[in-house]
Amino acid sequence: MAWLYIIRHFRTSWNDQWLCQWWKSWRIYKDNIRSPKDLVYLNEIDILISSDLHRAKKTAIFTKQCIWYKNRIKYMNEFRELNFWYFEGKRAELIRNLQPEIYDENDFFRYDIKLLWGESILDLKKRVESWLKKLCSVNKNILLITHGSVIHMIYSILWNIDYNQSYSGIDIDFDKVHYFKL
Q: Hey, how many other C-beta atoms are within 10 angstroms of the C-beta on 176?
């Protein structure tokens, strides 16, 4: 039986300020770094994959040392954060002011409307889903280091629930290990 384990990248200063964060690198808080005892049960990892963004890479390198993973980390751009492009570094309220049509009646992003020069939730789903299917077919224990919106999308795909249901109902904090039987 194979497992998919997922860890969100280390917390950054932008996360604490509730700023939209896409591909830029920001300071990682040292108090968010997990100790080896927190990750000890992840010592049966066959494949370690990380988003290729700086904050995820730093998390992957530290985690690799903690779990004594000997192979190379595979960095993949398919597991990057949702592309906020124009809104990167800005508060989400700006999205509401400049692009109110992106919100549905429940105050969530509509699936098919792209952020200014960025991605839609549907784009994110297509990007993540194609690789997730491949990962689920390898029959190996996989550890994925990625970002909040990607983790929500993985829940949405694997649990067959709406992305917004995952977003509003599943805690994707920085101190959790999420796991799925493949």
A: 13
Amino acid at position 131, single letter = W
Query: How far is the C-alpha of 130 from the C-alpha of 44, rounded, in Å?
Result: 25
In this structure, what token pair is assigned to residue 3?
A: 């497992």
Tokens linked to 38: 């927190």
Is residue 34 classed exposed, middle or buried when 0-12, 13-18 and 19+ CB atoms within 10 A define those classes? middle
| Residue 36, pLDDT score | 42
**Cα–Cα distance for residue pair 42/34, rounded to 1 Å:** 13
Domain boundaries, the chain: 3-181
- Single pTM value for the model: 0.86
Cβ neighbours for 63, distance < 8 A, ≥ 6 positions apart: 7, 34, 39, 42, 48, 69, 143, 145
What is the third-level CATH fold of 3-181?
Answer: Rossmann fold (3.40.50)
Give CA–CA dist 112/68, Å, rounded: 42
Q: What tens digit of pLDDT does each residue of 90-130 get?
A: 777 888 888 889 888 888 888 888 888 889 989 999 999 99
